[in-house]
Amino acid sequence: MVDRTIAFVRTEDVPAMPPPPNATGPAKWVKDNLFATPANSVLTILAILAIYFILSGSVPWMLNGIWASPSLAVCREILDGASGACFAVLAERWNQLLFGFQYPADLYWRPGLAFVLLFFAAAPVLFFDLPRKLLIFTALYPFIAFWLIWGGSIFGPLLALLGIVAGAFFYQKFVKNSFALGFFGAIVTALVVWTVGGYIIPDGEIAEGAMRSVPSRDLGGFMLNMMLGVTCVSLSLPIGIALALGRQSSMPIIKYICVIFIEFIRGVPLITLLFVANVMLGYFFPPGSGVDLFLRVVIMITMFSAAYIAEVIRGGLAALPKGQYEAADSLGLDYAQAMRLIILPQALKISIPGIVNVSVGLFKDTTLVSVISMFDLVGMIRGPILASVEWQGVYWELFGFAALLFFITCYGISQYSQWLERRLATDHR
Amino acid sequence: MTSITDPPRGSFQLSMLINDTRYRSYTFQAIAFIVLALSIGYLINNLFTNLAAQGLDIDFGFLGAPAGYDINQRLIEYTSQSTNLRAAFVGILNTLLVAFLACVTATIFGVLAGVLRLSNNWLVRKLMAIYVEIFRNIPVLIWVLIIFTIMIAVLPGPREFRGDDPAATMFLGISAFTNRGVYIPLPFFERGFGGGLDFLMVIVVLVGSFFGARAVTARATRIQEATGERPATLLTNLAIWFGPLIAIFLIFGLSFEVPELKGFNFAGGIKVGGPLIAIWFALSIYTGAFIAENVRAGIQAVSKGQTEAAGALGIRPGRIMSLVVLPQALRVIIPPLISNYLNITKNSSLAILVGYADVTATLGGITLNQTGRAIECILLLMLFYLTISLLISAVINVYNNAIKLKER
Q: B133 at the A interface (CB within 8 A)?
């Protein structure tokens, strides 16, 4: 028997060592994410330099900012050569930036209230979990907002509301028989109510329920951007759906009307359409009707965004599998039923990101009205404020403020759309 | 016993126009057509009534009349005595110029930012995300104004370049950035034929090089397919691209006219006006952010299995990018890229805001205001933009058909 002596046998496990310091924790993260390769390190250093230059220029400027001063000259005196912003212009011209320079100062609460109510009106549309009853307020909101912003007699908005209620009632009653009957009948009913009401309610001054009226040309500032954006997007949605359906239609005349309209609008810049609103559209109304500039601009911007929304929805319609259309047919649904109950709910869901993109783009484009000398936020900055003696030369504070307002709004909307997309995702891919 | 008979072949009744699906679409179309014709007739009737009431008419004769205003930035001969039509044409060329320049730079910004957004580098990735979000969510109008303000309010005036210890110095001694515009050196041939002919010659040489390089590549591919060995083409191609160009430069004596401070302003060199730079740069960075998103989406749309499959076949990483990933990504990237170019062309109409004489500013701005021919001017303006858009859409369609997946 051979006596084998074993020099060493380990009887217990080696205690686990901590990983090397550069393979874990922040050090590893920095190594992997910032300095993985030489080229990557160069990029990191360049990025840090860029951030340093931007921050070192802007942070002291903002921290030194002066919030109370009657004019730029006084600002410069206070700063005494140091770099610093003169945010006093925002404080002093706050109301002008928001409401324009002609809106009566004692009535600022009215558009302010309309703005706050907008959130309550939009909430049930944006978030489906809220009680459906709130939609009643959403339906009432346009009339309330109109009355608050323009003032005047309450009978105008009331009559408009009455016509729509009558139309909706007619639609509810007859849509069971035939969609066409319900739909067109509702339009006729509303028109009848408006015409009859127009005769009953006199045009003159009515003391009861009248607020001081404000003409459209006195609207301005960020309020004007908000109004144009909200009005035109909400009006263009139904028109866009109709145009998209028309473009998909098998009836050649209707199809080509829609195609020509969409391609024409999409082919020209919004500025030319605003020129049309400014100098040309007035000629197409009956003589003496005197449609004001705000309404003409709303018409043109609505047409513009309707064409873009139509293209987005057409994409949604085309993306639906053909089986959905065939299933609707085989259930014996007619065109209107198939569209309302099967096709559109799915197609609109697919189109939501695109519709939100168009809306954000449109909201940004409302600044273009400053080109036709309407005093929206940018128009106010370029015109009355930068041209004033006190604030000539305060560029960065004002442009920065405008950029910030738009950024907050547009970024907010796009974040909402991403949330909605996740929320509505029903496919488990 | 029952027998099957055909349903009675009823004669045509008026109610079938509504109730019978065979005829209903005709009814609808007829109604739609009549309504459309009536509304157009109504609008045109209103138009002529209103015009007559104001003593106006529609007449394009004003296009032949002298314009009576000056245009600073122009590519063709133009004086204030030239016709309105020529002013519009100057504007069209300016629109096309700024649109072309912005398309090139926007593509560069967009591709860079889009690729960098997919980088492994966390800092760069976040920085590019911030760039894209900031520029996409702020109106292009504000960007145009901001950059225009930098051009006129931040850059030094020519006066500040004067003296022994000037407040401002020329960039590298050859270019001057002033609030009246940017002055860069003008290349010219000392022994050339003059102006346009020299330029044409360089273009011809470049086109020749392009086809030469393509022929070399095609030959390399032929040899590779025949023998499996690909001859090295890099040096040959470099020689074909740069050889003739350098030869021309040497033969005709390339030299540069450097701008100099003379009197109150700079003279010599090429002057690029502040408005042009404002609109050009603003459109580039704004649209660049959109293109960045397209590029990122396009690259991400190529499934990872493609890269892995190519790797399994033993293809090298550089060639995987150029032979497998890029051709598939371009299919996704190019159609929205072209529609971004279309947006640039349309957004270049913002030039009117900063005083750059594009077609909106000449035909739709000064000519319109001076002649009062609003309807004619706006119709012509729309016609121009519509033509450009339809041309670009035609290009997109041709491209889409060419790259469509050929299946079944």
A: yes
Please tell me the distance from the alpha carbon of residue B90 to that of residue B100, in angstroms, as a whole number. Answer: 15
pLDDT per residue as tens digits for the range B143-188 = 999 999 888 888 877 777 776 667 677 776 777 787 777 888 877 7
Total residue count of chain B as it appears in this document: 408
Q: Domain boundaries in chain A? A: 1-58, 94-103+214-424, 155-211
Query: What is the SS3 assignment for B27-71?
Result: HHHHHHHHHHHHHHHHHHHHHHHHHHHCCCCCCHHHHHCECCCCC
Find residues 193-232 of chain B whose CB sits inside 8 Å of chain A: none
Shortest Cα distance from A185 to chain B (angstroms)? 16
Nearest CA-CA distance, residue B216 and chain A, Å:
32
Q: State the pLDDT confidence band at A205, using cuts at 50, 70 and 90.
A: low
Inform me whether the C-beta atom of residue A136 falls under 8 Å from chain B C-beta atoms.
Answer: no
Residues 6+ apart with CB under 8 A from B288: B105, B106, B107, B108, B109, B110, B113, B135
Evaluate if residue A209 carries a pLDDT over 70.
no
The length of chain A, given as a count of residues: 429
ipTM of the complex as predicted: 0.87
Using alpha carbons, select from B263, B259, B256 the residue that is nearest to residue B272: B259
Provide the CATH number for the domain formed by A94-103+214-424 in this structure. 1.10.3720.10
Question: What H or E segment, with its residue span, contains residue B181?
Answer: strand B181-184
> Is the CB of residue B24 less than 8 Å from the CB of residue B18?
yes
**Residue B271's beta-bridge partner residues?**
B183
What is the tens place of the pLDDT at every residue in A388-425? Answer: 888 888 888 899 999 999 999 999 998 988 888 888 77
* Side-chain-side CA neighbours of residue A388 (13 Å): 17
| Amino acid (one-letter) located at A120 | F
* Count of Cβ atoms closer than 10 Å to residue B98 Cβ: 24
Nearest to B378 among A40, A251, A276 (CB): A276
Mean pLDDT across the stretch A346-359?
Answer: 88
Identify which of B46, B122, B137 has the shortest CB distance to residue A406. Answer: B137
- Do residues B192 and B213 lie in contact, with contact meaning Cβ atoms separated by under 8 Å? no
Where, residue-wise, is CATH 1.10.3720.10 in chain B? 84-185+258-403
A410 and B136 within 8 Å at the Cβ level: the answer is: yes
Which pair of structure tokens corresponds to residue B34? Answer: 């009549």
Q: What is the pLDDT of residue A258?
A: 92
Q: Is the dihedral of CA A153, A159, A164, A168 positive or negative?
A: positive
Q: Do B123 and A48 touch (CB under 8 A)?
A: yes
Closest in A275, A282, A407 to B378, CB measured = A275
**Does A231 contact chain B (CB < 8 Å)?**
no
Question: Directed axis angle between helix B374-403 and helix B326-347, to 10°?
Answer: 180
In terms of CATH, what superfamily is B84-185+258-403? MetI-like (1.10.3720.10)
CB contact under 8 A, A283 and B127: no
The answer to whether the CB atoms of B349 and A271 lie below 8 A apart is yes
How far, CA to CA in Å, does A117 sit from each of A15, A112, A123, A294?
66, 9, 10, 22
Q: How many CA atoms lie within 13 A of B184 on its CB side?
A: 6
Helix H or strand E encompassing B255: strand B254-257
